[in-house]
Amino acid sequence: ILFEQNRCLLPIEKKKQNQSVKVMSKNEETYTDGEPLIENSTPAEYSSTDVHADMDLQLEDVYDIIGVGKTQLFYVVALSFVIYFDSAEMVAISTIVPILQCHWNLNVAWATAINVSSYGFSALGGYLFGKLPDVYGRKTVVSYAMVALFVSSTLSALAQEAWQFVILRCIVGLSMGVTFPTCVVYGAEIIKSKYRELGPLIAALIWTVSDFGVSLSAYFLLNSIGWRWFIVFNTAPIIVCFI
């Protein structure tokens, strides 16, 4: 609700000489014998000065008032797909490392580098880019991070050598360091405060379901479609988010 800061008071004409007139500040209503003289004047309790002085309205207070609607549910579902995709990327790499070790004849150091590339750089991405959502907005940063994650993950399926694969998976890890914590925070902010403690629990549940789903799909599909198409198959949840 917006209030005029510099509202001008209309001149008040005394109707009776013995009538007492009380003129208050410009942000308050003008009374005479208990009755307002100026139509459409703003009462003192709703004046802009009092609102700014006495009310500290936060975004969470607005969500507590309006409740959870279709828009909030839409965003929660979209953020859930992002979390699902993050978990799927982690589990998919752990699943195909033995295959890559045989495919490229890798030693233990290279196999470890492939495993660490996503996990380690996800922690580094959160440290380096964690402030970007507060500066440029959560939705904007998550969208760009999703694009980077999708492109780098898809390109890693086309890698011809181990070093190319490791570099692309490092980019995936940096993107995941932005998407996962931002999605958890964003989801907690757009729901009522009394449900906010359920946010991390729901995120952990989605992560667990994703681990189970990817492991199950690897059991049935990995040998038949190959590791390259298996990586592409795990990008399906992020495509749903783009749509």
End-to-end Cα distance, whole Å, is: 35 Å
- Based on the structure, what is the oligomeric state of the protein chains? single chain
Query: How would you spell out the order of helices and strands?
Result: EEEHHHHHHHHH
Mean of all residue-level pLDDT scores: 75
Query: Which of globular, elongated, flat, extended, rod-shaped describes the shape?
Result: elongated
Q: Assign the structural class, choosing from mainly alpha, mainly beta, alpha/beta, alpha+beta, or little secondary structure.
A: mainly alpha
Largest sheet: 3 strands, antiparallel
Number of helices: 9
What does this structure look like?
The two termini are 35 Å apart. This protein has a 3-stranded antiparallel sheet, with no helix packed on it. The protein is 68% helix and 2% strand. The chain has 9 helices and 3 strands, in the order E-E-E-H-H-H-H-H-H-H-H-H. The longest helix has 36 residues, at 198-233. It has helices at 48-54, 59-66, 70-103, 108-129, 132-136, 138-156, 162-189, 198-233, 236-242, and strands spanning 21-22, 31-32, 35-36. Residues 1-54 have low confidence and may be disordered. It is an all-alpha fold and 243 residues long.
